[in-house]
Amino acid sequence: MQLFGSSGIRGVAGAELTPPFVGRIAAAAGVVLDADAVGVARDTRTTGRPLADAAASALASVGCDVHRLGVAPTPAGQVYAARAGVPLVMITASHNPPEYNGVKLVGADGVELSRRQLERVEQRVLAEDVELVEYARVGGHRSVDDVTDAYVRELLDAMEAADHREHIADADLTVAVDPGHGAGCLTTPRFFRALGCRVHTVNATPDGHFPGRDPEPVEGNLGDLRRLVRATEADVGVAHDGDADRAILVDETGSHVEGDAALAALAAAELDAGDVAVSAVNV
Predict the structure, then answer these.
(1) Coil, strand, or helix at residue 80?
(2) In contact, 275 and 215? CB cutoff 8 Å
(3) Which of 7, 57, 61, 94 is catalytic?
(4) Rounded to an integer, what distance in angstroms lies between the CA atom of residue 170 and that of residue 156?
């Protein structure tokens, strides 16, 4: 594919990724998915609002009603898509620097579109093969204000169903959180507090300039979090990228935990001998 990579389309906003281009992508997705309604969400980047506006206008112009979700983590948008049964256009550049933005397309099942679906969208974008509807069929817009609240509730319900919530509350844990000024500011601190943890934060004000650190939660960018863990004697530190679909951990000594090691620890905690695990990879 010429446009879509492993996680959507990304580029420098205003140069490689412009509102008209985002509109073409959104319109093509609306037509290919034949959707009555489509959600539009974004992370905290300064260019997110105009790009989300462009996507929403284009979707309405091809006859889709638009659910405006505002700023939300990508996983929160995916949960909404699955619950409401609508596809999602997510405006985010994930871990890329502040000047970047991007588009990620999610199906009505809450899962990113398949390669075959993305190829169909891309073909229409490149061919500019989208027909606008007449005035009487233009889609409407509505704001959805409880996306992050509903996401936190679903996370808490999942912890309750797995019989983890009471154990976590009884453990008297202290958690340090670094959302990196991204969409995770709206959910992760609240989630841990609702679990009964003491929560300390850094870089936890939504800000698309990312003044505290770059969005990518690599070891070199997480000095503030490591210091916070040590200063507060936290049991664990958690850092996110711009759209909070990635979590990187710091242990109780303030040491960085590689993502592969964290995955191995989670697998060891959840899997027994003879269990079957499925690992999804990009090809």
Answers:
(1) helix
(2) no
(3) 94
(4) 15
Predicted pLDDT of residue 282: 58
**Residues 180, 97: contact at Cβ < 8 Å?**
no
**Structural domain spans, the chain:** 9-145, 149-270
Task: Classify domain 9-145 at the CATH superfamily level.
Answer: Alpha-D-Glucose-1,6-Bisphosphate, subunit A, domain 3 (3.40.120.10)
15 Cβ neighbours under 8 A, 6+ residues apart: none
Q: What is the mean pLDDT of the chain?
A: 95
Tokens 């609702």 locate to: 194
Q: Which fold has domain 149-270?
A: Alpha-D-Glucose-1,6-Bisphosphate; Chain A, domain 3 (3.40.120)
CA–CA distance, 144 with 200 (Å, rounded to integer): 29
Please say if 255 is a catalytic residue.
no
pLDDT at 89 over 70: yes
Amino acid at position 254, single letter: G
Per residue in 49-58, pLDDT (tens digit) is 999 999 999 9
pLDDT value at 281 more than 70: no
pLDDT digits (tens, 9 = 90+) for 249-270: 999 999 999 999 999 998 898 8
CA distances from 282 to 6, 84, 115, 237, 261 (A): 6, 27, 10, 28, 20
> What are the two backbone dihedrals, phi and then psi, of residue 282, each rounded to the nearest 5 degrees?
-80, 135
pTM recorded for the entire structure: 0.94
Place of tokens 């284009």: 58
For residue 65, what pLDDT is reported?
98
**59-73 pLDDT tens trace:** 999 999 999 999 999
What mean pLDDT comes out for the span 94-109? Answer: 97
Q: Which helix (H) or strand (E) holds 96?
A: none
**Beta carbons of 49 and 20 less than 8 angstroms apart:** no
Instruction: Tally the C-alpha atoms within 13 A of residue 231's C-alpha that lie toward its C-beta.
Output: 11
